[in-house]
Amino acid sequence: MNASAPRRVAVLGATGSIGGSTLDVIARHPARFRASVLVAHRNVEALAALCAAHRPELAVIADPALEGELARRLAAAGVRCEVAAGMEAIAAAAAGPLCDTVVAAIVGAAGLDSTLAAARAGKRLLLANKESIVMAGPLLLQALREGGGELIPVDSEHNAIFQCLPGGRPALAEAGVRRLILTASGGPFRGRTRAELATVGPDEACRHPKWSMGRKISVDSATLMNKGLEVIEAHHLFGAPPARIEVLVHPQSLVHSLVEYADGSVLAQLGNPDMRTALAHALAWPERVEAGVAPLDLAAGPPLAFERPDLDTFRCLALAFQALHAGGDAPAILNAANEVAVEAFLAGAIPFLAIADVVESVLAELPAQAVVDVQTLVARDRAARAAARRVLHGAC
Ligand SMILES: NC(=O)C1=CN([C@@H]2O[C@H](COP(=O)(O)OP(=O)(O)OC[C@H]3O[C@@H](n4cnc5c(N)ncnc54)[C@H](OP(=O)(O)O)[C@@H]3O)[C@@H](O)[C@H]2O)C=CC1
Ligand SMILES: CC(=O)[C@@H](O)[C@H](O)COP(=O)(O)O
Ligand SMILES: [Mn+2]
Q: Which residues are in the DXP reductoisomerase C-terminal domain (predicted)?
């Protein structure tokens, strides 16, 4: 890349938690990075405000009904940028000439098409949208190979592992790697019993002890499904067999993950729990830039603690390992059922513990099939969502 030309970054999910952290880092380094494309779902007011602040070349709103309102708001604010709408426009923007870097930070399966489009187009893909790699790991890796771009993980654990490996994503056996150790905060309900979890509600579940995140991933952290999705994500990103991936609960969330080598060395990446570190690393890689994150003062904090996860209480983590072992499209089925169950929980329609029950029922109803292509995968995602809704209706 020309050293004098800033990277042109498309931020998919600009109005979300990752989107906000990304734009904060970008704004700190105007000579290096420019937000050239901003994308949101329905939050037209926030998207217009971000356009006024960052002056992208293109703004895309997923909901076509809001395109006119976005254009009106931008005109009223004196912002001149192209406006587009719809999921196809998002994928086209991710693959198009207005960006060389794509931050995939749409939440859920809705991010799949644009993530794949960016990979196929050979962009530098900064992957936060873990659901897309969980659903379509082999297809995404194939798209990356064909596109000739690069993937830098943004999820804090995977970014940590990337930093602890030689040259990013080498073949693990050749690099002498014995195990990948993913840390988990344990979420807001660490240490609670199933009886204590029977009546917890959405706001409690979203009160994460260490990270400020969107509501879907916050619930996933509370059930430990987030860690389950991350185990599957690590399997695909680093080519690690399930037996070589371990999860350790680390309530301080200062050690973001670790890599154990054949000689007994264990390398870890540490830092305050602030996603701007991972985002700055991924945006600037292989260079390093300031991220606005407070320096870590290990002497001032509590001692670092580690414990094994409670798989009997937090069954979603066990279910994710089960789906990974089943292989094929079982992780996509797991993800779809989880998305439906989490939405129902957030709407107050089902209790917290029912999330795992729904996922377990749907995995049992739809045994794994081989992943053939995106169309088949999307059809299976739909079937899993329909099955999850039937389970919900049966239970309510
Ligand atoms: N937050 C974090 O610290 C971390 C998040 N991640 C992952 O990053 C992703 C984003 O998480 P987070 O930022 O917390 O989520 P948020 O809920 O805060 O933000 C979600 C973003 O996605 C947009 N969006 C939702 N649905 C669609 C759609 N159909 N089409 C286009 N855009 C859509 C939203 O737009 P709108 O505002 O208009 O609804 C919003 O910009 C998730 O996959 C999560 O697992 C990974 C590691 C850490
Ligand atoms: C910041 C990040 O990467 C989240 O995925 C985080 O890991 C969530 O915390 P849990 O460890 O509680 O799932
Ligand atoms: Mn994470």
A: 270-386
Q: What is the pLDDT of residues 198-213, one digit of tens each?
A: 999 999 999 999 999 9
1 domain residue, yes or no = no
Is residue 230 domain-resident? Answer: yes
> Whole-model pTM?
0.98
Q: Are the C-beta atoms of 168 and 251 separated by less than 8 Å?
A: no
How many Å lie between the centroid of ligand 1 and the Cα of residue 75? 26
Which residue's CA is the nearest one to ligand 1's atom 27? 41
Say how many Å lie between the CA of residue 10 and the centre of ligand 2: 23
Q: According to the annotation, is 217 in a ligand binding site?
A: no
Q: Report the distance separating Cα 299 and Cα 310, nearest Å.
A: 29
Q: Position of tokens 């992943």?
A: 371
Tokens of 330: 């079982």
Q: Which residues of the chain have pLDDT under 50?
A: 1-2
Can you give the pLDDT at residue 2? 44
Q: What is the pLDDT of residue 1?
A: 46
By 3-state DSSP, what share of the chain in percent is helix, strand and coil, each rounded to 5?
50, 15, 35
Q: Using CA positions, which residue lies closest to atom 5 of ligand 2?
A: 155
Residue 157 labelled as part of a binding site: yes
Domain boundary among 130, 154, 178: 154
Separation of alpha carbons 141 and 115, rounded Å: 11
> Tell me, what's the pLDDT at 96?
98
Same domain? For 206 and 136 the reply is no
List residues near ligand 2 (CB under 6 A).
155-157, 184-185, 187, 211, 221, 226-227, 275
**What's the CA-to-centroid distance between 130 and ligand 2, angstroms?**
11
- With contact defined as beta carbons under 8 Å apart, do 249 and 238 qualify? no
Contacts of 285 by beta carbon, 8 Å cutoff, 6+ apart = 152
